[in-house]
């Protein structure tokens, strides 16, 4: 299934990124470049739901997005 149909980003891609971390949904949107003004705008709610379902908390700093 897709987290963002407009950009073709799959939920599995987002789950791998957030996996139990404290992540700001806006940072996920930045990482996948989902803030394009021509997008439909459903992504933020979907991203937040994926973060919660993956065991994360929707808030963090950019350092947590860097691979270990």
Quick summary:
This protein is mainly α.
Which class best fits the helix and strand makeup? mainly alpha
| Uncertain regions spanning at least 5 consecutive residues | none
Count of helix runs: 3
Beta-strand percentage range: 5-15%
* Mean pLDDT, all residues: 80
From the alpha-carbon coordinates, what is the Rg to the nearest angstrom?
Answer: 11 Å
Q: What is the number of E strands?
A: 2
Adjacency order of strands in the biggest sheet: 1-2
The amount of helix comes to: 25-40%
Distance between the termini: 27 Å
Order of helices and strands: EEHHH
What features would you describe in this structure?
This protein is mainly α and 68 residues long. The chain is globular. Helix 2 (25-31) crosses helix 3 (43-53). It starts with a strand and ends in a 15-residue tail after the last helix. It has helices at residues 11-18, 25-31, 43-53, and strands at 2-4, 9-10. A two-stranded antiparallel sheet has the order 1-2. It is built from three helices and two strands. 38% of the residues lie in helices and 7% in strands.
Blueprint of the fold:
Elements: E1 2-4, E2 9-10, H1 11-18, H2 25-31, H3 43-53
Antiparallel strand pairs: 1-2
Helix pairs in contact: 2-3
């Amino acid at each position: 299934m897709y987290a963002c149909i407009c950009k073709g980003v799959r939920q599995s891609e987002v789950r791998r990124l957030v996996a139990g971390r404290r992540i700001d949904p806006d940072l996920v949107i930045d990482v996948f470049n989902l803030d394009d003004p021509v997008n439909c705008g459903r992504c933020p709610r979907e991203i937040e739901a994926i973060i919660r379902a993956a065991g994360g908390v929707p808030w963090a700093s950019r350092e947590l997005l860097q691979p270990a």
